[in-house]
Fold these 2 entries.
Entry 1:
Amino acid sequence: MVKFTSLMKSDKYDAIFKLNHEWLSSKTENDNEYFQKLYKEQNPDFLYIGCSDSRVPANIITGLDVGDLFVHRNIGNLVSNNDLNTMSIIQYAVEHLKVKHIVVCGHYGCGGIHTAMEQKSFGLLDNWLKNIRDVYRFNFKELELIENEESKYDRLVELNVIEQCENVIKTSFVQKSYLKYGYPTVHGWIYDMKNGKLIDMDIHFEEMLKKVQKVYKL
Ligand code: CO
């Protein structure tokens, strides 16, 4: 096994293909048809929306395998209704893959959230960070009362997950599918990078749906 992190930068590129070979060999060792079976179709039960951070890889932190998760990642795990990419992924996951669960996973130590808390401009990135700054504004009173900066930062990570869960529920695809079939349900998770633990925030999906439907019934 190649020890990737200990390699010189110049050797890392080629090492990826060696690692790929080792990985595919491990998969076909006991099952010759492993890739042929996967090639035929995907049938994941979960859509995972998380942060692009290299330290929060969806399949690895959940211990899940190839084919288990439909994944979308961006800076700050945001669900913005004018982002065609995220909206298309949610529609495809709900209407075609018929996923049973949609997870929004944030993480403590998120660089996107931290950057958004800074009172300065970052050029193009400001358009994206605006979504996080909106979450700060929606929860201004609560956040301004927190004096400890680290605690405030952690709380914004949590509030952002809750807000993005609401944004998922606001979509017509999720509302229509849930009312017709009883799925998908939406979950908010936090990944704690300090200890590797996944935390289920236990958001009240049914309550959120009812609230959202009073305003955004689609
Ligand atoms: Co992040």
Entry 2:
Amino acid sequence: MSEIEQHLHGKVAVVTGASRGIGRAIALRLAARGAAVACVATSADRARDTAQACAQAGVRASAYGVDVGTTDAVAELVSQVQAELGGLDLLVNNAGITRDQLLLRMSEADFDAVVNTNLKGAWNFIRAASRPLMKSRGRIINIASVVGLTGNAGQANYAASKAGLIGLTRSVAKELASRQVCCNAVAPGYIDTDMTAAIDPKAREALLGAIPLGRTGLAEEVALAVDFLAGPGGAYITGQVLVVDGGLSL
Ligand code: NAP
């Protein structure tokens, strides 16, 4: 069979941080599976190219702009998506930022910005989307990070936000299980995107040496893990963290 199976045909997905990197790969993969996709970035303009690429798979796709950390604006956006795309079946909280610095040099602003986007942003979307997801018996997938499990020097803010996201994932899984909503996290290792492009060559070499599979990961490889959890394979999985890191955290 040349065309991939469209197990998300007729479903509506929201993907945050869809303008580039992992979020773009997730949006494209879900569209290839037949889902209508709401592509969210800091501005609709930034998400437009991904939405257009999704539409080429023959699905409805729209671009939306919001700062995921702003509670009221996120609630409005979730209502708008439901009205425009006709429901909500899958929420992928992928938007994220880093502001790396050693603890003693880290500013309060850098701590707050990372937690507000990576953790509160996901909470904002989950809270706004939980009623429609209960109705559709939908799925929630949060993009965490292996450093949320292992910690990382220079990333106290980021690791704390991702560890928090894992705690949020497990709590939401327990709260919404009776409504048949599954909530899981995917924890990527070192994936080639804009986020990791700034790492200096020496640090990159050391990192590569620490990855048992001997290479960095591709955004598409994270998208395939999301695809699995969003599809039939994820029906009886909830509250779990699927690590996609080439063995980095072993
Ligand atoms: P990226 O290339 O830097 O893209 C980040 C995305 O998040 C962009 O679409 C950006 O939108 C969006 N975003 C950032 N702040 C936002 C905000 N306040 N409101 C709305 N959208 C916002 O990052 P990536 O590498 O693809 O990472 C995606 C996710 O995977 C993140 O949660 C990251 O922590 C996680 N992760 C990445 C790696 C890795 O190695 N790359 C490893 C582990 C986990 P704009 O284009 O509008 O700025």
